[in-house]
Write a structure and sequence with these properties.
The complex is a heterotrimer. Chain A is an alpha/beta fold. Chain A contains 13 helices and 16 strands. In chain A, helix 2 crosses helix 3, helix 10 crosses helix 11 and helix 11 runs parallel beside helix 12. The N terminus of chain A is likely disordered. Chain C has three domains: 126 residues, no CATH class; 192 residues, no CATH class; 145 residues, no CATH class. The chains are: A alpha/beta, B mainly beta, C mainly alpha.
Chain lengths: 423, 386, 538
């Protein structure tokens, strides 16, 4: 053993897995509590675990009303830019709080993707792949759960708060299925069991037997999913207190803003702190084919507050270096403004933002032309984007999964990591 | 004042005002003068020809100063005071009768030129000179608004003005002294979508709205009357209409209840000349945007009239109080009788595809002889009513 | 896909009369499926045993598991043609119409239909059941839906178009996807990037529907009363790609045009025709001088429509076999087609049989393909080559009614002084719809998650485990046979199969340990009601 290594380096994923398998009861950190003997130590290790929080702008936020303004151009619209804490980088006046966090993020103004409608776009920007009738691609959350998460955790590794992705675990299988919370981050209905624990344990054992019996003759994946989901629900019972955020919310309300998205972002931080590999927080309503400016004026400020609060909080807790925060929707919006005062779908040139983990902070990458109609410089495809995300989380984007015998890399074949975005 | 006969409307002329959406229009007195503003802050004055014409008359004056969309225009009956409210957070006061200060070249047919240039790329369509017209600056600017000023209304005695912005701030101004009389703010995160004053300027109406901020994250709309001088609430229309709804926070259930009444915001409001009624237009993109006629004394809904597919944009009373005139997202101007709600005339015709262009604003001259609608496609239609 | 491929996929079906000497469709199915196995080097599963077949065919045809007595009788029956006889019996069962109407109601409306007050449509559902009960030909009832005559509450059919009040584009999208198996929605905003569809194809179909309007009356029995009116004037205006739609652009009225076919020949309008913008509410709309809607209905359901027969043959195939011969069923493009000749054969014969869906279902269920076992190593729930039976989740309706049947809840409730009304009593139906209403992710893949288990574990399912006299619970408690034998009955009642020896042993041990057999039996019933074997039709 190299004496200069820090102990955490030796706590390989494998070792953690063993810890996970060795214990079955207890609180949030009990999965690995036995390896360390102290919850504080466990928290330190949790900090070293890479995680990802996705802020999802469902419907497709407008680049023109956020990070790529074209003031004075026919495509510009009525909103105006403001200065930020990064010299030369202006953003929309709807985001005064993020303007003070620009030194923590990397803006990609040169996204060019391939799916222009919502279902395709939602699939694409959750998986890196267009929808296919033959391959069930896993969402980024399932990939993170598999490569960053602990096995058979009490808390699911892939948690969604008001999310819209519908690909789920795909071919990665039932272990990486998402767990969805209610819109404001509350536990879903019927989350709490009222049964006598002894009776429940007994019937659980009998139920396992029944599932084993069915699985003797059938390997069909859906049955596995059904069974795994049941077991996750059983494990979840031990972690319910993590979701009880009211006390903490009272302290952080001002930081995140008193909105659903604010609450969702604080819960996301709390979950990541508790060892969850991936949390998606969604905000809906960006599909502003009509009244785009009013729509963004309603939606962006609470999101700005929540997102800036999240980055501040992660930074203050020293968690930002291991937590990637992704900001995106499924599509961008058209340069032209239609006769409904709206903007339609556009994927030829639009914007996403990354922060934390290995992402280089305080930069703007790529550029669009004068009217925002096309990428002028350094186009980034969905593949490049996911490859960069995976690499920043320490996951090899070329790593292949298998659906049957068919190898499927995490990021589509031919994607390039945008090294300039990585520190 | 001659009676308004809606059946007699004939198209007098079509003013070309291309380059950005035409958003606002007002008659300057009872002559043939009007002002119109657009989405980029351009504010022009036209002197209309005596006879109907197919030609588009050129503007005669440019009012300079706004840097962003002009949302509303109101004018005094003598045409000596024009007031504009803008996205640029300012409210400007103009006297369009003063000697102009300078001159400028204005191009109002940019889209026609582009079409010509496409047909004939070697032609000079794009380099043709524009029209040279007089310019002037505002006489006064009301500052203090913190966001887009979308609501503007003047009392009929023309002594007071109310303006409201998207930060929720409402200001009442004394027009003689140009002083602020009162100000107050609405619910956090709400926008002031419309405001108006009673004839004597004592009562203020204010409507608030904000589009949904997240999935179920929607602040409450407000539809209220206030004492204009103090900002003290005197009537809450939603409480009258929905007495059983207790929750006034951002609950979705509440939103869906009042949603039937406010649609995507009440975007225009005006007191009737006798002060007994209020006309409130349902705006934003909504199924059918109606105009509510409210009883000021009781807060009750008298009836909902008109109906613009996809939403209304503006609504006014005729000077005699007999009609409500409204425009909307169906490229029409509709005239309805106040007494029974019957629609008696419809001007304009949808063009376009599934979604129609909007008539963004409507104006009637004080003598009821001229009617105008601002069309977002860069046109102002003027009808003579004689 | 270019136009050539498209024309290959949707070749017109020659109208071949079916002769008595022709082999039944079921044979053709098995031959074609077998040929594909050989070509794809796929090893098929063995035939399903009687119990497996019994549960599957009950759920597929009548939407509920068999009772204990029914199961016992079928398993004891020694006649060689008992499966064919069971299929015939189920096709004549009163629940046949109920269940098939459930299935099609979901196709036509889904859980969250668009439009005003469309969530509650009992008249439509009863009307649809009647069509299945009388075995009205599919083309006939589809034409009725599209012609939409009468009122929603007195007749039913107008309900379908009532979803799309003045929304000709939405209606065009739904109609072509549902009845023709083609997806035009991309062409709504731009020419389809990969398929042959142009925007004008889409608007050509929408033009048929441009004059439709929902005329509302007062409600009747809490159900919206409405009629579908058709105005004399009104066009769909086309303004090019959505992205280029700017103010001031004049739309071009698009004339009705059959998909990939001719423009509609319209008579000249009467001279004194006035422009109609809107039909008044609460007044039965007059017939227009010429009905575009009726022409569309006739073209869609015409015998020689190249899409119609294929779309329904494929959709019903998928309903019983797990996936379409073109998959997904509402996107019938060439690259999604696995068994071209078989699809043609099914469509031709179904058309030749005058779209008799009962005949078609009989053929499908009698095929060996349908009767294969679902056992084996394959993980895919819906095997591409049909080499093994598909595994599909039960719908909310199937689950609740099967649960109640299994536990004897219904038997007990029927004897109550005030028997419960309606179909979906016992639990909160809204929860069932929320947690089990859409078991698929939209493309047919099972998407169960943690939520449904929270409901199963902590929710209302236990309410259905009746303990009164006549319930499964009480019957087994009163029974004095050894637990092993009683476990056999437990399995047959819930899972429609006898218990295996290991299961008898395990359950008997569980049930006889401790001093609370009643409590333990309740939990044992819960286990079987919630396990994968019950959750899926396999």
């Amino acid at each position: 053993m190299n004496p200069r290594c820090r102990p955490a380096d030796h706590l390989s994923r494998r070792a953690l897995l063993k810890g996970a398998l060795a214990t079955t009861a207890g609180g949030v950190f009990m999965n690995w509590g036995d390896l360390f003997g102290s919850a504080a130590h466990a928290k330190d290790v949790a900090k070293e675990q890479k995680s990802c929080i996705l802020i999802w702008l469902n419907g497709g936020a407008s680049q023109f009303e956020t990070f790529d303004m074209k003031v004075g151009r026919p495509t510009g619209g009525p909103l105006r830019p403001i200065q930020t804490n990064v010299v030369g980088a202006q953003i929309c006046e709807l985001m005064p709080k993020m303007a003070q966090q620009m030194d923590k993020v990397a803006v990609i103004r040169s996204m060019r993707t391939s799916q222009i409608d919502h279902p395709g776009g939602i699939h694409l920007m959750h998986t890196g792949y267009g929808p296919s009738a033959n391959v069930r691609y896993p969402e980024i959350g399932a990939v993170c759960a598999k490569f960053l998460g602990r096995e058979k955790p009490d808390l699911p590794n892939f948690i969604k708060i008001s999310s819209n992705g519908d690909a789920g675990a795909g071919f990665l299988g039932p272990n990486y299925q998402p767990f969805g919370l209610d819109h404001d981050g509350r536990l879903p209905q019927f989350a709490v069991s009222n049964l006598d624990p002894k009776i429940e344990a007994n019937r659980n054992e009998l139920r396992n037997f029944a599932e084993d019996s069915f699985a003797l003759d059938r390997k069909v994946e859906v049955a596995g999913m059904h069974r795994e989901a049941y077991e996750s629900v059983r494990r979840l019972q031990k972690t319910l207190k993590v979701f009880d955020i009211e006390q903490e919310w009272a302290k952080h309300r001002d930081l995140y803003g008193d909105t659903k998205i604010g609450k969702g972002c604080m819960l996301a931080r709390r979950l990541v702190e508790s060892g969850v590999a991936f949390v998606e927080v969604g905000q809906s309503g960006y599909d502003t084919h009509a009244d785009n400016f009013a729509g963004h004026k309603g939606l962006v400020p609470p999101m700005d507050h929540a997102w800036a609060g999240l980055l501040t909080d992660l930074h203050q807790r020293g968690m930002l270096k291991n937590t990637l925060v992704v900001w995106m929707g499924e599509i961008g919006r058209t340069p032209s403004i239609n006769n409904r005062s709206g903007r339609d779908h556009y994927v030829r040139a639009w914007t996403t933002v990354l922060a934390g983990a290995r992402i280089k902070p305080g930069i703007v990458y790529g550029e669009t032309d004068l009217d925002g109609k096309d990428v002028k410089d350094k186009p980034v495809t969905e593949g490049d984007f996911f490859a960069t995300i995976y690499k920043s989380l320490g996951i090899n984007p070329n790593k292949e999964n298998f659906q049957g015998v068919r190898p499927i890399p995490l990021a589509p074949f031919g994607s390039n990591v945008v090294e300039d975005l990585l520190a | 004042m001659p009676d308004l006969n809606p059946m007699k409307a004939t198209l007098h002329c079509e003013l070309v005002f291309e380059g950005a959406w035409t958003t606002s229009v007002a008659f300057l007195g009872s002559g043939r003068r009007l002002a119109a503003g657009n989405r980029e802050g351009v504010l022009l004055v036209w002197d209309l020809p005596e006879q109907p014409t197919k030609e588009s008359p050129a503007p005669t004056r440019k009012l300079e100063g706004h840097t962003n969309a002009i949302n509303r225009l109101v004018a005094s009956d003598d045409g000596k005071l024009l007031i504009s409210a803008s996205h640029d957070k300012s409210v400007r006061l103009w006297d369009p009768t003063v000697e102009p200060a300078g001159s400028a070249e204005v191009i109002v047919d940019s889209e026609q030129r582009e079409r010509e240039a496409k047909k004939n790329p070697k032609g000079a369509a794009l380099s043709k000179p524009g029209v040279k017209i007089a310019t002037q600056q505002a006489q006064h600017v009301f500052t203090g608004h913190r966001a887009w000023v979308q609501a503007l209304g003047m009392s009929r005695d023309q002594k007071r003005l109310i303006s409201g912005d998207d930060s929720g701030l409402v200001c009442v101004w004394d027009l003689a002294t140009r002083q602020q009389l009162a100000k107050w703010t609405g619910s956090p995160a709400n926008w002031i979508t419309s405001a108006c004053l009673s004839a004597d300027g004592q009562t203020a109406f204010v409507a608030e709205f904000c589009s949904p901020r997240g999935s179920f994250d929607r602040p409450p709309a407000q539809v209220r009357l206030f004492e204009a001088a103090t900002g003290k609430e005197t009537l809450d229309f939603l409480k009258v209409l929905y007495p059983n709804v207790k929750v006034r926070d951002s609950s979705y259930g509440y939103a869906t209840t009042w949603g039937q009444f406010v649609a995507q915001g009440l975007v225009a409001a005006e007191f009737s000349p006798d002060g007994k009624l209020l006309a409130l237009a349902q705006g934003g993109e909504t199924g059918t945007g109606k105009v509510h006629l409210m009883e000021v004394a009781t807060g009750k809904l008298l009836r909902s009239v008109s109906g613009h597919q996809s939403g209304a944009c503006d609504a006014i009373f005729s000077a005699d109080g007999k009609y409500v005139l409204s425009v909307g997202r169906d490229t029409t101007l509709r005239i309805c009788q106040v007494a029974d709600g019957k629609e008696v005339a419809q001007l304009g015709k949808p063009r376009g595809g599934q979604f129609k262009d909007w008539f963004h604003a409507v104006a009637l001259s004080p003598d009821q002889q001229w009617l105008a609608a601002a069309d977002i496609s860069g046109r102002v239609y003027v009808w003579s009513m004689g | 896909m270019n136009r050539l491929l498209l024309s290959l996929l949707f070749v017109s079906l020659p109208l071949v009369p079916v002769r008595a000497a022709d082999p039944p469709l079921r044979n053709c199915i098995d031959e074609q499926v077998k040929a594909a196995w050989a070509r794809e080097k796929v090893k098929p599963a063995p035939l399903a045993d009687d119990a497996e077949f019994l549960r599957r065919v009950h759920l597929d045809i009548i939407g509920i598991i068999p009772t204990y007595d029914e199961a016992k009788a079928f398993l004891d029956d020694q006649s060689p043609d008992k499966r064919a006889k069971l299929i015939d019996r189920l096709l004549e069962h009163p629940r046949y119409a109920l269940h098939q109407a459930d299935e099609w109601d979901q196709v036509l409306f889904g859980r969250n239909p668009p439009g005003y007050e469309t969530q509650r449509r009992p008249t439509f559902q009863r009307w649809l059941q009647e069509q299945f009960a009388k075995n009205v030909p599919y083309d006939k009832w589809v034409a009725d839906i599209l012609k939409a005559e009468g009122t929603t509450v007195d007749d039913g059919p107008p309900w379908f178009l009532a979803q799309y009040d003045r929304q000709p584009e939405d209606a065009a999208e739904k109609i072509t996807q549902t009845f023709l198996g083609v997806q035009l929605q991309c062409a709504r905003c731009h020419d389809h990037p990969f398929e042959a569809w142009k925007q004008v194809d889409f608007y050509g179909v929408a033009a048929f529907l441009a004059r439709l309007q929902v005329v509302q009356f007062d409600k009747k029995n809490n159900e919206l009363k409405a009629m579908i009116g058709e105005r004399n004037t009104g066009e769909v205006l086309f303004t090019g790609p959505a992205a280029q739609q700017t103010p001031g652009k004049k739309g071009e009225p698009i004339k009705p045009k059959f998909l990939q076919g001719e423009a509609l020949a319209e008579p000249a309008p009467p001279k004194d025709l006035k422009e109609e913008r809107s039909l008044p509410a609460s007044k039965a709309p007059a017939k227009p001088y010429f009905s575009r809607k009726d022409k569309l209905a006739e073209w869609i359901t015409a015998k020689d429509n190249p899409y119609f027969a294929r779309a329904v043959a494929n959709r019903v195939w998928a309903q019983f076999m797990g996936r379409g011969l073109v998959h997904p069923v509402d996107n019938m493009i060439a690259k999604n087609l696995t068994h071209p000749e078989l699809l043609t054969a099914c469509a031709q014969q179904l058309s030749a049989q005058n779209f008799d869906l009962k005949w078609y279902i009989r053929e499908l269920c009698n095929s060996q393909t349908y009767q294969l076992s679902s056992t084996g190593e394959v993980e895919d729930a819906r095997p591409t080559w049909f080499e093994r039976a598909r595994v599909r989740p039960l719908s909310a309706e199937e689950l609740l009614e099967s649960w109640r049947q299994a536990t004897g809840y219904d038997a007990v409730a029927a004897k109550a002084p005030k028997p419960p009304q309606g179909r979906f009593h016992g639990v909160t139906w809204d929860y069932m719809v929320r947690f089990f209403g859409q078991p698929n992710n939209g493309t047919g893949n099972f998407q169960g998650g943690l939520q449904e288990h929270l409901y199963l574990n902590n929710g209302e399912v236990s309410r259905l485990i009746a303990t009164d006299k006549g319930s499964l619970h009480q019957t087994l408690l009163d029974d004095k046979r050894p637990w092993e034998e009683r476990v056999d009955q437990l399995y047959l009642s819930i899972l429609t199969r006898p218990a295996k020896p290991a299961e008898k042993k395990k359950f008997a041990e569980y049930l006889s340990s401790g001093d609370k057999p009643a409590e333990r039996l309740r939990e044992a019933i819960w286990v079987l009601l919630t396990c994968s074997e019950f959750r899926f039709n396999h």
